[in-house]
Amino acid sequence: MPAQRESSSLLTVLVAFGANVIVAIAKTFAAIITGSASLVAEAAHSWADAGNEIFLIQAERRAAKPPDGAHPSGYGREAYVWSLFAAVGLFTAGAVVSIFHGVTQLWSDEPATDYFIAYIVLAVSFVFEGISFVQSFRQARNRAEERGTGTLETVLNTSNPTLRAVFAEDSAALVGLLIAFLGVLLHELTGNAVYDAIGSILVGVLLAIVAFVLIDRNRRFLLGEPGSERVTQTVLGMLLQHPEIDKVTYLHLEYVGPERFYLVAAVDLVGNDVESDVAADLAAIEAEIEDNEYITEVVLTLSRPGAAPLRPDAVDRPDDTRIADRP
């Protein structure tokens, strides 16, 4: 399942990259011809998005590397590092450029020309950005249906940073195109370039908001985002179903990559084996749990005498004890 999802995420990024390159070229051409501040902002936006997709492709590649001796928990967190670079790039190359250009054009009285070209390019851009958005929305909706949550909730809480980044960038692109259209239209109708400049500033503000949200989400996962209560309950139920485990007194789950967990638990084993046998039993149980496709590394220790057991709440748990990446 994770391999299929990684493939789906990579396809989403590649579709977005192709769409952004085509759109960026078209917007740049239109910005040069028309002199529209809103189109300049949109061109900067698309070039920033295209560059960011390269970071996201790298995120997918690096995070897929298997664990080794130096990194027993794998390389999953690299996805958040490269996605963080992409979010910072969106802010600097997209938001800052758009806002700066818009501010400098507020007092410009240079008339824009060739409005028809601007409208054509904006329409074509909307089509290509829409294709990319449909791909990211389809992937997000499929995840949401698996978890029984809303699409937007899934996007905000998913441990997959590339899905969140592409969905957010595509959504911002569509909204930005509408803002640019209004800026150009009001400029044409009134002859006042300030509307075009304001459109550029608004596009920059939109990109800044999206960038800050993405930066914050990646920061949280890099610091060690714990598993949600629902995921924790699912794992607790899985541990308690193991024939060798009598009770669990401590459980900690932490994301180490997209849909990958590091698990630490204190357990009380069935029976009263000698210390050497207990150590072997714990190692065997750890190996069994690590066969789960969502668990990267497991550390089990014995519960302290008298420690209170954790009790699972009444939650829906998959029959095959697979751990869903649920918010």
User: What's the name of the CATH homologous superfamily of the largest domain?
Assistant: Cation efflux protein transmembrane domain
Mean pLDDT: 83
Strand order of the largest sheet: 1-2-3
Q: Would you list the SSEs in sequence order as H and E?
A: HHHHHHHHEEHE
Using only CA atoms, what is the Rg?
Answer: 25 Å
Shape: elongated
Structural classification? mainly alpha
Task: List the uncertain runs.
Answer: 314-322
What would the CATH topology of the largest domain be?
Answer: Alpha-lytic protease prodomain-like
Beta content: 5-15%
| Proportion of residues in helical segments | 55-70%
Main sheet: strands, sense, barrel: 3 strands, mixed
Number of helices: 9
Q: State the distance separating the first and last CA atoms.
A: 18 Å
The level 1 CATH classification of the largest domain is Mainly Alpha
Strand count: 3
Tell me which CATH architecture of the largest domain applies here.
Up-down Bundle
Domains counted in the coordinates: how many? 2
